[in-house]
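Side project, low priority. Logging it here so it doesn't get lost.
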Amino acid sequence: PAVIGDTLHAFLNPLRREVTLPELPFDLGRLPRVTITACGTAFLAGWVAKYWMEQVARQPVELDLASELRYRAPPMPDGGLTAVISQSGETAETHGALQYAREQGQRTLSIVNVAESAIARDSEAVLQTLAGPEIGVASTKAFTTQLTVLAALSIAIGRARGTIDQATEARLTDALIEVPARASEVLN
């Protein structure tokens, strides 16, 4: 609950009931497609984000395993965004997928726990999870904070695309604000 709350605090304004991402060097409202790529647990977070972005934001999304993306060499549309997810920011396959996306002229966004990582340095924009050190192999803190960032991003894309209005953003933001307390209830 604490790391979810910390991450939410970085991306939500509870008084205005809205998502407040840092300034990004691209327009979330004009993306022809988002490609999400990751490995392992981060890939599972990407699956959830695909559903959210398509349902909430009506944003076309493609999901690729990072270990396959650059070898499959898919065509990527002009002006598309590739979002890479990695807890450490050092996952070799994910870094390789990021490099491929850059070579294809994609805008790039990383969702990482380590702001000084190679993936973060090589991305145009970074949305940092605030999970702290991940001790267990299960990666629960990293996974839940990745979902937290991806939920905020989905809402932000929806607002930028005009697929959700201010009232819907407020309702979704209110629901996100409740997540730490609900997670604490479940754990107790």
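Brief comment: The chain has seven helices and seven strands.
Revisit when time allows.
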